[in-house]
Specification:
mainly alpha; single chain
């Protein structure tokens, strides 16, 4: 951009903040055990709900390559599902 500016050909420069933020998230959470557990749970839920009447509740698909670009989709999905879930102990954890 600086070279074009020197030649009188400059134009507005918009940095892509989404890639920068995704890189920061990746550095912090890529190997975090809780994040791995969250992704695993999303995968299990997706597999259990697919092809059922509750398929509309499956988590958003997030590709491995662009996982941190679209991680907000999984977080939004998880937040919505938790708001729909009744409070208390999960059924499978009950004695």
């Amino acid at each position: 951009m600086a070279l074009l500016g020197e030649q009188g050909l400059s134009s507005p420069c918009l940095d892509d903040i989404s890639h920068a933020v995704a890189g920061m998230l990746k550095r912090v959470y890529q190997d975090h055990p809780s994040f791995e557990t969250f992704l695993s749970a999303c995968g299990r839920v997706s597999g259990q709900l697919k092809h059922t009447m509750l398929a509309c509740l499956t988590p958003a698909k997030v590709r491995t390559k662009a996982r941190f670009m679209h991680v907000h989709r999984l977080c939004t999905w998880a937040d919505r599902v938790l708001k729909l879930s009744p409070p208390g102990v999960p059924r499978r954890a009950r004695p």
